[in-house]
């Protein structure tokens, strides 16, 4: 919960690549085509965060430059309404007007809200102002049309809209809006560790060096991982102080007069928010290591990747990274960011952050009801043959039935997230991956990549529908 366990994907590019592989299987070459409009529907089934939406939006300008005009309809479904509220807030940061803040400030703000249990005062102040703006947007259609016309809440039930309102109100600094994240984190950590709690530093090192680094977590440094496991603060810089509770991590909100009851913290406490943006990079200079020590932390890789995506969202031009802008903290022992005492009512927003969001032409984002989880898995007739791409989060695979396939088009891309980037035993990882592969096989899917020929583990598995050669060529032509 709260963040995905696989890297952010340009899902439009993934769809095009799948289509090209299908075309290559035809005997005749497909004639050159004029620039074309490609419209696709993408289902995010429990993705836990908006990473795929952000990266897909950021890369749209590159597809346009190649002569393809994408029109992309995202359908986001999650069983927890507070997670949807967090989705919206993170999208709001990514698409914040450049007039409101500079690029690096926006990146550090996003990293704070995305991956830290405690926020800097400036980030908390922004979240308060943004909550007011999001509340207006949710309750006033004219305001939403002015700010974010590409967001659509029509599928949400009234109780779910009320849930969003509760979340946005809870983020405001009022006396009854209590979220003692440090206490919740410490108590849950003690419970999860059990008898190992007094030796937790050794357990943290084992989980990182013997488990995650043996999978795809090589870029995570020991210092940042241990600090996150202990405090819930993943992304730190020495000059910053962390003192305000990140209320976007609260779930199960129930209003009780002027106060709120909630479930405390119930998210991930073993992997961390490093997978989405912090493990891979097109800039290989940030992935270098020497004598077993990374030159750069996963935090630094996350910063660099977000700088690229947010630059592209704002300017629709390629990003060139100056390596001098990245701090080489991989092997440096840092005084980790301080955590301070705070007063819930000691701050209020100076700004409302109600400028129109950056508009990306050809993007529509529709948030679905939690009831649609069951309609989709049952292949409800309303959604029949609707989606060109479906991404299924690892913790939502249990909801799938064979009838789910009915909502996918014949020429579709199915992406299944594995449990690779968890600290589960290798036997459990393998068993879960076998379940994914068997589900695809039973429902007449074939892998986009020949996984059996690759001697590596995978955080996602990509599949396409099996079609005989004649039907395949006919569809492509």
UniProtKB/TrEMBL annotation:
Keyword field: Cilium biogenesis/degradation, Cytoplasm
The keyword Transmembrane helix belongs to this UniProt entry's keyword annotation: no
Protein name listed in UniProt: Dynein assembly factor 3, axonemal homolog
Family to which the UniProt record says this protein belongs: Belongs to the DNAAF3 family.
Higher taxonomy: Eukaryota, Metazoa, Ecdysozoa, Arthropoda, Hexapoda
Residue ranges of every copy of the Dynein assembly factor 3 C-terminal domain listed in the record: 151-447
Residue stretches making up the DUF4470 domain: 2-119
GO cellular component: dynein axonemal particle
Species per Swiss-Prot/TrEMBL record: Glossina fuscipes
Localization terms from the record: Dynein axonemal particle
Keyword Transcription regulation recorded: no
Record-linked PANTHER family: DYNEIN ASSEMBLY FACTOR 3, AXONEMAL (PTHR22118), DYNEIN AXONEMAL ASSEMBLY FACTOR 3 (PTHR22118:SF14)
GO biological process: axonemal dynein complex assembly; motile cilium assembly
């Amino acid at each position: 919960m709260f963040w995905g366990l696989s890297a952010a994907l340009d899902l439009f590019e993934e769809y095009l690549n799948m289509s090209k592989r299908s075309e290559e299987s035809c005997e005749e070459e497909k004639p050159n085509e004029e620039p074309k409009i490609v419209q696709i529907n993408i289902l995010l089934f429990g993705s836990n965060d908006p990473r795929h939406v952000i990266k897909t939006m950021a890369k749209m300008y590159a597809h346009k430059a190649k002569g393809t005009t994408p029109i992309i309809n995202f359908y986001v479904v999650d069983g927890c309404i507070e997670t949807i509220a967090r989705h919206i807030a993170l999208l709001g940061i990514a698409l914040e007007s450049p007039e409101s803040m500079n690029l690096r400030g926006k990146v550090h703000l996003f990293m704070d809200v995305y991956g830290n249990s405690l926020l800097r005062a400036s980030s908390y102040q922004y979240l308060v102002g943004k909550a007011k703006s999001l509340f207006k947007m949710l309750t006033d259609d004219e305001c939403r049309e002015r700010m974010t016309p590409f967001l659509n809440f029509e599928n949400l039930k009234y109780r779910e809209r009320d849930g969003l309102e509760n979340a946005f109100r809870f983020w405001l600094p009022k006396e009854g809006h209590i979220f003692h994240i440090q206490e919740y984190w410490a108590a849950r950590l003690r419970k999860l560790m059990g008898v190992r709690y007094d030796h937790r530093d050794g357990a943290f090192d084992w989980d990182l060096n013997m488990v995650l680094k043996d999978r795809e977590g090589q870029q995570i440094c020991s210092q940042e991982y241990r600090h996150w496991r202990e405090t819930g603060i993943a992304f730190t810089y020495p000059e910053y102080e962390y003192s305000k509770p990140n209320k976007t991590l609260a779930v199960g909100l129930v209003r009780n007069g002027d106060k709120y009851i909630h479930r405390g913290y119930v998210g991930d406490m073993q992997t961390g928010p490093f997978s989405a943006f912090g493990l891979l990079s097109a800039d290989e200079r940030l992935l270098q290591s020497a004598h077993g020590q990374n030159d750069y932390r996963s935090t630094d890789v996350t910063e660099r990747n977000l700088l690229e995506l947010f630059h592209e969202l704002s300017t629709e031009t390629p990003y060139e990274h100056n390596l001098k802008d990245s701090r080489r903290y991989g092997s440096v022992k840092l005084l980790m960011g301080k955590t301070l005492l705070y007063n819930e009512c000691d701050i209020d927003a100076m700004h409302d952050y109600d400028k129109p969001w950056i508009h990306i032409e050809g993007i529509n984002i529709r948030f679905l009801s939690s009831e649609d989880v069951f309609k989709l898995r049952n292949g409800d007739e309303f959604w029949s043959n609707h989606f060109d791409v479906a991404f299924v989060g690892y913790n939502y695979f249990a909801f799938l039935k064979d009838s789910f396939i009915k909502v996918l088009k014949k020429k579709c891309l199915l992406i299944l997230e594995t449990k690779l980037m968890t600290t589960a035993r290798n036997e459990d990882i393998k068993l879960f991956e076998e379940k994914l592969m068997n589900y695809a096989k039973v429902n007449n899917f074939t892998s986009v990549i020949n996984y059996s020929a690759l001697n590596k583990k995978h955080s996602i598995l990509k599949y396409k529908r099996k079609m005989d050669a004649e039907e395949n060529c006919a569809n492509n032509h």
